[in-house]
Amino acid sequence: MAEEEIRLVDVHKYYGAWPALRGVTYSIPRGVFQCVVGPSGSGKSTLLHVIGGIDKPTKGDVWVAGLHLNELGENELADFRNKYIGFVFQLFYLIPRMTILENVELPLILRGIPKAKRREAALEALKMVGLGHIDPKKRPTQLSGGEQQRVAIARAIVAKPRILLADEPTGNLDSATAKTVMETFLSLKRELGITIVMVTHNLELLSYCDRVVRIRDGRIVE
Ligand SMILES: Nc1ncnc2c1ncn2[C@@H]1O[C@H](COP(=O)(O)OP(=O)(O)OP(=O)(O)O)[C@@H](O)[C@H]1O
Ligand SMILES: [Mg+2]
After folding, report:
1. Model pTM?
2. Cα of 161 to ligand 1 centre, how many Å?
3. What would the pLDDT profile of 104-135 be if each residue is shown by its tens digit?
4. Whose CA is nearest to atom 25 of ligand 1?
5. Which alpha helices (DSSP H) does 111-144 contain, by range?
């Protein structure tokens, strides 16, 4: 059995009285490309937020990268996210007043990487998502939706995180570009052994995944 990188045991998440997750028990081995599918509102984003230490479960236990997240305080959770997690959000959350390059460099600033190295890594990440031809001094609002999505992906992979959590990362991309992004994910997995959890509605992309889990009404159904 491969080492478990992510383990959830009986995880519940309530938003007020609304149960977004209703007892999820699931493990993901290290180095696996895991896909998550399910209808809108079924709890997929909530699941990623819980794994990434963005949302705390109302009940249940979460272990990620050898850490029991339940035991971590806010500062420790922030450190955990900076150190281990790359996140591609469903809405990209790029910072509009910063340039593309600065947006991509952000995780490296948080990790205290010196400027020249940051620059080099950010340009490399932009190339990996097929944006090598774009002026990195532009602002996010000067890009198309698909280009902005790729900047968000570059930001998530720039620090070569141990775990990549991607919430519909290809939702705004044409199928050729979506495939380029999937190839980038696969090479990160192969070369660095990173664990990937990706939510997608695009069934064509499931062939890139090692495993697929379906979620419905806050529960794992298969
Ligand atoms: N911050 C919040 N406050 C209140 N309810 C929330 C919040 N976030 C999510 N929910 C509710 O929890 C449920 C699960 O939401 P979630 O975002 O995880 O769904 P999803 O599977 O990612 O859906 P989609 O495919 O549309 O992105 C939904 O019913 C949603 O309305
Ligand atoms: Mg979602």
Report:
1. 0.94
2. 25
3. 999 999 889 999 999 999 999 999 899 999 99
4. 40
5. 115-128
Q: Which of 6, 5, 10 shows the shortest CA–CA distance to 220? A: 10
Lateral strand order in the sheet of 211-216: 85-88, 163-167, 195-199, 33-37, 211-216, 219-220
Task: Name the CATH superfamily for 4-220.
Answer: P-loop containing nucleotide triphosphate hydrolases (3.40.50.300)
Which atom of ligand 1 approaches the CA of 47 most closely? 18
Of 18, 37, 55, 88, best ligand 1 pocket probe by most atoms within 8 Å of the beta carbon? 18
Q: Ligand 1, atom 26: nearest CA belongs to which residue? A: 40
| Helix or strand run (H / E) with residue 12 | strand 4-15
Q: Is 48 helix (H, G, I), strand (E, B) or coil?
A: helix
Atom of ligand 1 nearest to the CA of 201: 25
CA distance 134 to 145: 14
Q: How far apart are CA 94 and CA 116, in angstroms?
A: 22
| DSSP β-bridge partners for residue 34 | 197, 211
Instruction: Give the Å distance between the CA of 152 and the centre of ligand 2.
Output: 16
Domain boundaries, the chain: 4-220
CB atoms within 10 A of CB 176: 8
